[in-house]
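Hi everyone,

Forwarding the result from last night's run.
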Amino acid sequence: MESRPLDALNFARGKKVIVELKNNKQLIGTLRAFDIHINVVIEDVEERVEGEVKRKLGTCFVRGDTIIMISPA
């Protein structure tokens, strides 16, 4: 059972997540890595804007200060 926020992220490693960004975009992909600043690396990324897939991005590094929310997909 998770007791800290980073434990929840660790549990999601290797699983599909939705990363919601401050610019109203969503990135959906597999969480590979993260650090204490919530910078994340996700693979097989799809970028969605208003629910519509805009493009496929492959592997992405996302800065933690651009993220609003990370959720299991």
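The chain has one domain: 5-72.

Cheers,
N.
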